[in-house]
Design brief:
Blueprint lengths: L1 H22 L3 E5 L4 E5 H57 L2 H15 L3 H14 L2 H12 L5 H14 L3 H14 L4 H14 L2 H13 L5 H18 L5 H14 L4 H13 L3 H14 L3 H8 L7 H14 L4 H13 L3 H13 L4 H14 L3 H13 L5 E4 L2 E3 L16 E3 L50 H7 L47 E2 L17
Antiparallel strand pairs: 1-2, 3-4, 3-5, 4-6
Subcellular location: Membrane
Keywords: Membrane, Transmembrane, Transmembrane helix
Organism: Hohaiivirga grylli
C-alpha cells in the first residue's frame, strides 16, 4: 500500500515539475565560436535532463563491460567452492561409513578444489587414520596447528595419535600445550591430570582439580572425592619419609571422604603409632560401618601392640556388631578366635558362610582352624583343595584389572578413583585341582561332595600302597595307642620304605603375638586379569607382627 502511494506521489511531482517548467518564460543562449543558439527555457531544461540520462546509461554499459571478466571469475570460484564443499561432505560421509576408497577420492578432490582449509585438512587426517597412514595423519594435524583457528583441533589430533602409539610423553606435551591455549578444554585438563598422577606429582594434580572446578568441568562432589584420593596417594608416598605430613594429608582426605578405606587405614595406623588408639578406633569404626574391609579390620585389631589374643577377639566382636555380622565381620571374628584358640566360637561364626557357597578366604580359614584345633592334615588338604574351586573374594578392581592393593588411578585409563572394592567375575574354566592330591595316597571321601562342609574327623580309605598280606599286629598296636591319629591316612601301619613316604604339604605358619604396629610399605599394586583362576590368599594369611 505504501509503495503504491509513494509511486503515485513521485508521478505527481514529475507532472507538477513539467507543468511548472512549461509555464516559465525566457531563453537560454549558447555561445560558440562561430555559432549562437537561443533556446527556450523549458526546452533547455528537457535537453539537460535527457543528456544526464544518456551519460548515466553510457557509464553503466562501460562499467558492465569492464566488470564482466571479474564476475565470470567470481562465478567460477563460487562453483568451484560449491563442488569442493560437496566433495568434502561426501568424503565425511564415506569416512563415517568406512568406505576408504571413496573417502580417499573425495579427500583428494576437496584438497584440489578448496586447498588447505581446516575441514579439508581434517578430512585428510581422518582418511589417513582410517587407512592406517599415521605419517599423513600426523602431517595433517601439524598443518592444523599452524592455523590459529584449527590449532586446538590439531593438538587434539596429535594427542590422540600419540596415545595410540603409546607415546605418553608426547601425548602429555600436546595436552599441556592445549591446556595453556584453551584453559577450559576438558580433554586437555583431564589428560594433564592423568599424566601428573602417573608421575606422582600429587601437589600439581590437586591444583589441576581446583582449576577444573573453577571452569565448571567437574561438580563439587566429584572434586571432593578426587581431592581425597590424591591426598591419600600423597600420604602413602611420604608415609616412611615424613609421617607427620602423611598424617596431615590422610586426615584432610577423611574430611573430604570419611569412608575412604585407604585414608582411614593410613590415618588410624599413624595415630596408633603415636599411641592415640581411641581416635584411631573412631576413624575405623566410622569407615567400617559403611564399607567393611579387611584392611580396616586388621588395623583396628592390632592398634594396641600389647593386646592379648582375647583382647583382639573382643575388638573383632565389636567390628562384627557394627557390620551386623556380615561376611567380613564373621571372617575377622573367626580369624581372631582361632588365634585365641576359641575354636567353637570360630566354627559357630563361620557356619552361616559354610551353609552357602564358601569363598576362597573362608575355605583357607577353615584349613587354619582344622590345623590349629586337631592338626588334621587330611582336612587341611581338603579345604585347600576346595579353596581352588571356590568363588573369589572381593578385591580392588578397575577397568577389568584386579589389584592386590588400592591405587589412586587406573593403570588402563588413568582415571582417578577408578578402583572399587567388589567381587571379581568368576573364571569360566575352573582350575585342575588334581595337583593338590598328587602327594596323597587317597582322596578324602568328603571331597566327593561339596554341598556339606565337614566338621568332624573323616577317616579316609585304606592306603592302597599297603600290601594285602599286611599282618594285623601293627594295627592292634595302633589301636592301643593312647592318642591315635585317625585322619592321617598317608601314615601306613607298617614301617614304609623311605622312597614310598608321601611328602607332607607346607602348612601355614602359626600366629605370632604382635609387638608393634608396623606400617605397610608403599608399593604399586600387582595387577592380574579378573578371570585369573589362581587362589588369592592375600587377605587370609596371618601376618607376623
Amino acid at each position: 500500500m505504501w509503495r503504491i502511494l509513494i509511486y503515485i506521489a513521485v508521478l505527481c511531482a514529475i507532472a507538477f515539475g513539467a507543468v511548472w517548467l512549461s509555464t516559465l518564460s525566457g531563453e537560454v543562449t549558447i555561445l560558440l565560436p562561430d555559432y549562437v543558439a537561443n533556446i527556450d527555457l523549458p526546452v533547455a531544461a528537457a535537453l539537460l535532463i535527457l543528456t544526464g540520462l544518456a551519460i548515466a546509461v553510457i557509464w553503466w554499459l562501460v562499467a558492465t563491460i569492464l566488470r564482466t571478466p571479474f564476475r565470470m571469475a567470481k562465478s567460477a570460484k563460487v562453483k568451484k567452492r560449491a563442488k569442493g564443499l560437496q566433495a568434502l561432505s561426501r568424503g565425511m560421509i564415506a569416512v563415517g561409513a568406512g568406505d576408504t576408497g571413496q573417502a580417499r577420492r573425495y579427500a583428494k578432490q576437496a584438497q584440489k578444489l578448496l586447498g588447505d582449509e581446516p575441514l579439508t585438512l581434517l578430512l585428510n587426517a581422518q582418511v589417513a587414520q582410517v587407512t592406517g597412514d599415521l605419517t599423513s595423519a600426523d602431517a595433517a594435524f601439524r598443518k592444523m596447528t599452524a592455523n590459529k583457528e584449527t590449532q586446538l583441533l590439531g593438538l587434539r589430533g596429535l594427542f590422540v595419535e600419540a596415545r595410540r602409539q603409546n607415546d605418553h610423553e608426547a601425548a602429555y606435551t600436546h595436552a599441556r600445550e592445549a591446556a595453556l591455549l584453551a584453559p577450559a578444554a576438558g580433554w586437555a585438563n583431564e589428560a594433564v591430570l592423568e599424566a601428573q598422577c602417573m608421575k606422582g606429582a600429587w601437589t600439581e594434580a590437586l591444583e589441576m582439580i581446583d582449576r577444573r572446578v573453577a571452569f565448571g568441568l567437574i561438580d563439587k562432589a566429584t572434586a571432593k572425592r578426587q581431592r581425597a584420593v590424591l591426598l591419600t596417594a600423597n600420604a602413602l608416598a611420604v608415609e616412611q619419609s615424613a609421617p607427620d605430613t602423611a598424617l596431615v594429608d590422610s586426615t584432610r582426605a577423611l574430611k573430604y571422604a570419611p569412608t575412604l578405606v585407604p585414608a582411614a587405614t593410613l590415618a588410624a595406623r599413624l595415630l596408633g603409632q603415636r599411641g592415640d588408639a581411641r581416635k584411631a578406633s573412631k576413624i575405623i569404626e566410622k569407615a567400617w560401618s559403611v564399607n567393611p574391609h579387611p584392611d580396616l579390620a586388621e588395623t583396628y585389631i592390632y592398634l594396641k601392640a600389647n593386646a592379648s589374643a582375647q583382647g583382639r577377639l573382643k575388638r573383632a566382636e565389636t567390628l562384627g556388631r557394627l557390620s551386623n555380622l556380615d561376611m567380613e565381620g564373621r571372617l575377622i571374628i573367626a580369624q581372631t578366635a582361632v588365634e585365641a584358640r576359641e575354636f567353637s566360637r570360630a566354627r559357630d561364626v563361620l557356619k552361616p558362610l559354610l551353609d552357602e557357597q564358601p569363598t576362597i578366604r573362608t575355605c583357607l580359614l577353615m584349613a587354619d582352624l582344622e590345623e590349629a584345633e586337631h592338626g588334621a592334615v587330611g582336612l587341611v588338604r581338603e579345604w585347600v583343595a576346595r579353596a581352588a574351586r571356590a568363588p573369589r573374594d572381593s578385591a580392588w578392581i578397575a577397568d577389568g584389572i584386579v589389584a592386590e592393593q588400592w591405587a589412586p588411578f587406573s593403570p588402563v585409563s588413568g582415571h582417578i578413583d577408578a578402583f572399587k572394592w567388589q567381587t571379581p567375575p568368576d573364571s569360566q574354566s575352573l582350575p585342575d585341582t588334581s595337583a593338590f592330591d598328587l602327594d596323597m595316597d587317597e582322596k578324602p571321601e568328603s571331597q566327593a561332595s561339596e554341598a556339606e562342609p565337614t566338621f568332624i574327623d573323616v577317616t579316609p580309605a585304606e592306603d592302597q600302597a599297603t600290601p594285602p598280606e599286611q599282618p594285623a599286629e601293627p594295627e592292634q598296636e595302633v589301636a592301643k595307642a593312647p592318642e591315635p591319629e585317625p585322619i592321617l591316612a598317608d601314615t601306613p601301619a607298617v614301617d614304609p620304605e623311605p622312597e614310598t613316604e608321601a611328602p607332607q604339604p607346607p602348612l601355614q605358619p602359626e600366629a605370632v603375638e604382635p609387638i608393634a604396629v608396623t606400617p605397610k610399605p608403599v608399593v604399586f599394586p600387582e595387577f592380574r586379569a579378573p578371570d585369573d583362576p589362581g587362589v588369592d590368599t592375600t587377605n587370609t594369611k596371618k601376618k607376623k607382627r
